[in-house]
Every structure is written in structure tokens, then in C-alpha cells.
Amino acid sequence: MEIQDIYSRFLECTGLTTDSRKCGPGLMFLALKGERFDGNEYAKAALEQGCRYAVMDNPTLYDAGDSRMILVEDSLKTLQQLAAHHRRVLGTPVIGITGTNGKTTTKELCNAVMSSTFRTLCTAGNLNNSIGVPLTILGMDSSHEYAIIEMGASHPGDIDELVHISQPDCGLITNVGMAHLLGFGSFEGVKKTKGELYDWLRAHGGFAFVNRADADLTGMARDLPTVGYGQVSTQGTPNEDLLVEGRLLGCTPYLEFEWREKDGQWHTVKTHLIGAYNLNNALAAISVGLHFGVSEQSASEAVSNYVPSNNRSQLTVTDRNRLVVDAYNANPSSMRAALDNFSLMDAPDKVLILGDMRELGESSAAAHCNILEIILSNDSFSQVFLVGNEFASAFRAMQDTDSLKQVSLFENVEKLQEHLSSSPLSGKTILVKGSNSTRLTSLLPLL
């Protein structure tokens, strides 16, 4: 069946689901395969639960006598083609966002700013991959004035695939850093893959929002129409190449900054974000909003009112401790930024709970040793808990260092859970950061 024919059936439905647990009257069920499941096995049950159609790619489970079943060669490709077709039909302006660090926070801030004035569609959570992006696009309807689509990548070509689905009119790369090197191979591989967003924009008459303080991004955006934003020093003079310039006022513990549009008035913003590194994310969101017509006051209020709730730059106060939770992801650049910011916080008894940084390939050993050296050169941390084999290797390589007395090593998060249960922490300010797969968030009830 041609994609246009499948699309006409999609329009008859109330929505689309790939989750057999979320089937219901009027939906289109699309069966995906995974390593441990085959959604085709649930197609019949989905129809019995009221789904109007079931798209499937397993001919042995297909019933040619049931007109509600739609057999395709590849369900995932059909999902992506369906989303790309839907995006072309609606023509809603799409803002694409990617980057090594901060892309989810920037996406959330952009949505906060843009939704203050317009009806927006925004990637939910971190559904930023080859399945999440098309599902987000298919959630768009004619009432949406803008779509803000986050795109993640762990291998070359990932962003290229996602821009062909979402077809952004403009884009924003938050930064490029050392992450997923197991897939990218090198820092240049990271730049090339993230730059696939810029490549699409060049080829299709788009433009980019670019942090002019970032030499890598400025170089990557060469020959591309841009809207500039960036930080200036306290004594900084206006940069004519910037739509928005900002400067840090403080971070005790929440980020506070001021910004202005070119030669305009300064606006002071007090946020609920932890970390000076979030200044660029906030300036990016303000730049997007101003470019599309959001007022300066609305933009400031939106950033000020945004409260993170996704284990990113999040301050939590418990009965016993204050927690800085940034445990969704970790790579060398984000880890260094978190440590630098945490060391500057005005707080007593600062404790680190850090998990391994995953998918760094051959650079992993050096990266973990470098982080450990940063920790040991800083006397502001009273205790350090390290979780995982990568940090263990770095730890063993530095066993002759006297400073290691403050460091406790745990093979996995379960071992640390046992320790914290028998020796609870109280009266501490604790940074919790590591790759999501280390599951450090499971420690939060014990802190």
C-alpha cells in the first residue's frame, strides 16, 4: 500500500500508538519489532481493543481477510514516511534542536518561551530518536503554530535521518562535545553528525540560531544564515552580530542572569535552573522566542517560571539533604561543567555521587582519569562516591595518591544503596551525576 493510502487511513483515526498497552477506540496501531518483542503479535489484540487499523510487517500474522490490517515491508520505515508526509501536508514551521549537552533543557525552555505566545508542539521527554521523532510529528495537528523537535544521535547519520523526517525550517545546536564516542569514533565524528542539521538547513533554505561564543558552532555554521546569541563579560560591549546577549549575575544555587536585545534594556531573570552552564540554554530559548515575535517580557517570565522536573539541573530538598540531581546523562564536558558549578556553590559539606560516563570507546579510560584528577585537585568536596567499573579503573591507577582517602568506590548502584542504608548521609549538599544506565536516580529515596 502506498504511503498516501496509509495516510488517508491515519486521518480517519484519533491518533497512532506503537504501544500495545495503550490501544483504544479509533487509534491506529503500528507494530514495531525490538530485540525482545514483536509488536505484530499484538496486532489482532489491538483491533479487538478498538483500534481502527493495525499496520504490521509480519506476513505470517497478517490476515488478508481483515481489511483493518495493513501489511507493509517495514513498519519502522512506514512510521517515518508517514510522519514526513504528515509534516509536509501540514506545513507547520519546525524548529530542530540537537547538541551534545543541554538539548532537552533547551528544548523545554524554547517551548516555555514559544508557548507563552503561540500554540506549540514539543518533543515529550527525550523521545528524540528514530521512533520518538516521528511519533511526535504525528501528534501535530492544524492548530499548532510551531513544532519544537529534539533530535538525539549516537551514530553518524542519525541526525540526517531525523531531519528528513522532521524537515526543520530552522535549527539550533546547543554545543558539540565528547560523547557517544563509541559510536562517533572521534570528536570530529560528533561535529559531523550534529552538523547534519546545518547541512539540511543549507540545502533547504533554512537558518540556524548560533551561540557566537562557541568557535566550533560558529565554524560549522559557515555559509548558513544565522541568528546569533551569546554571553558577554560584565563589562562587555554590544556585539552587532547578536540578536541577544547575556551575562551571568550569579548561581547561588539558582542561575541568575541578565540579557538584552542588541542595544536594548537589560532584563534580569532569576531561574529555577542549577548551573551557570544553563545560561547559554536560556539565551538560546530567548533568541528563538524573540525572532518569532515573543515579547521581551513574556520571554523573561517564561524562563523565570520554568521548573525542571526531568533529573536535569534539578535542586531537590529532602528531609536530610539538598540534592543537585543531574543524573540523566553524563559525558566529559557535562561532567566537568557540573563539577565546576558545584564547587562554586555556597554550601557546607558538599558530597559527590558520580556514575560512569558510558559509550566513550577508547577515550573512556583517559576521560575518567581526567575527571578523577579534577575531583582530587578540588578541596571543596568532603566525600566522593564513585559508581561503576570505569571509575574503578581510574581509581586503581591513582592508588598512591593521598587524596584518595575521601573517595569510596562501588561496583554498582546496588552496592552504594546498601552502604547508604547502613550509613545514611545527613546535612549534606550532594551532586548526583552519571549516565542514565548507572541508575543513580534509584539512590534518591535514600538521600
Distance between the termini: 55 Å
Radius of gyration: 24 Å
The assembly state of the depicted protein chains is single chain
Overall spatial form: globular
Estimate what percentage of residues fall within beta strands: 15-25%
* Helical content (DSSP H or I, runs of 4+): 25-40%
Mean pLDDT level: 91
Per DSSP, the total helix count is: 16
Strand order in space, largest sheet: 6-7-5-8-9-10-11-12-13
| Strand segment count | 19
Low-confidence stretches: none
- Backbone structural class: alpha/beta
Largest sheet report: 9 strands, mixed
Task: Please tell me about this protein's structure.
- The N and C termini lie far apart (55 Å).
- The strands form 3 sheets. A 9-stranded mixed sheet has the order 6-7-5-8-9-10-11-12-13, with helices on both faces.
- The chain contains 16 helices and 19 strands.
- It has helices at residues 3-11, 43-48, 75-90, 103-114, 132-138, 158-166, 181-184, 187-194, 196-203, 215-220, 278-291, 296-305, 332-344, 364-376, 389-397, 413-422; strands spanning 15-17, 27-30, 53-56, 69-71, 94-98, 120-122, 146-150, 170-173, 207-211, 226-231, 242-251, 254-261, 267-274, 314-317, 322-326, 350-355, 381-387, 407-410, 429-433.
- The relative contact order is 0.09.
- It is 34% helix and 22% strand.
- It is α/β, with parallel strands linked by helices and 447 residues long.
SSE layout and pairing:
Elements: H1 3-11, E1 15-17, E2 27-30, H2 43-48, E3 53-56, E4 69-71, H3 75-90, E5 94-98, H4 103-114, E6 120-122, H5 132-138, E7 146-150, H6 158-166, E8 170-173, H7 181-184, H8 187-194, H9 196-203, E9 207-211, H10 215-220, E10 226-231, E11 242-251, E12 254-261, E13 267-274, H11 278-291, H12 296-305, E14 314-317, E15 322-326, H13 332-344, E16 350-355, H14 364-376, E17 381-387, H15 389-397, E18 407-410, H16 413-422, E19 429-433
